[in-house]
Hints:
289 residues, alpha/beta, Rossmann fold, 41% helix, globular, binds S-adenosylmethionine
Amino acid sequence: xxxxxxYYHGIASQMALFGESNRALVAAxxxxxxxxxxxxxxxxxxTSLAALEAVPEGLELYxxxxxxxxxxxxxxxxxxxxxxxxxADAAQVAALLPERKLDRVLCNLSLWYFREPEAVLAELRKxxxxxxxxxxxxxxxxxxxxxxxxxxxxxxxxALHRRGDLARALPGPDRLPNQRSIxxxxxxxxxxxxxxxxxxxxxxxxxxxxxxxxxxxxxLYPALPGADHQAGVERTLAVLxxxxxxxxxxxxxxxxxxxxxxxxxDPGEALRLRFGDRLPGDRLPGxxx
Length: 289
Ligand SMILES: C[S@@+](CC[C@H](N)C(=O)[O-])C[C@H]1O[C@@H](n2cnc3c(N)ncnc32)[C@H](O)[C@@H]1O
């Protein structure tokens, strides 16, 4: 029987949305041999595979996901090129990794969908080096990528709501999180945001036809519920032809955004990190002042 991890990998690895967002994330992160890197919410390992394509040797890679079959699939894909795999919730990171060890945390299309992103940010701050970087992407379905551009997934959910198939509509673009609100949350969690970019994703096949990005995304995350995942997928795919024109009329486009941030270290914390409890000027025991 196909596991969820295998199923996810078979589809996501063919999608421009995951391929292009992961490549852009890795390029922005400026990885180098010798770096310790966490792939957070790694799924089947697509971010790590992109990282290894950019830097084939010398990365110390850690992969974490809370779904056991995702971790099993990531192990199949990445194998012994990673230092360790963790099946754990993102909010447990600091209990698993040594303090201030990581040069980079990479998190593709996941961070803002955790139940409590702020709690995860607090954990990540503990495991990143003071010079380390948190690098993540978000999708334009749940983020305002500016200009009122909506994603095909947003347009679909809107159409389903109008038909009465979905009780709740997604908020309009102006009520979705945006660059300012996300950077505000990063600052509140003692991070210094220093990079923001919007990326357009190329999607050639018609969205609602087999092989289209939206069609494939619905095979992973169906918009309509069913008795089980498969039933939800079948129900969602069956309705696509009926809403295809309505979706196309909104001229939706796939876009992702990427952010990078560094731990914001205040002068007192910087001194403590450098000298521990022995502040400069303190006498060392047994050394005449
Ligand atoms: C959209 S997938 C993205 C996977 C991967 N980053 C990629 O680019 O293919 C979201 C992933 O987040 C994982 N996830 C969701 N909530 C999580 C949590 N609280 N802690 C760790 N992983 C989580 C899911 O199991 C899933 O693998």
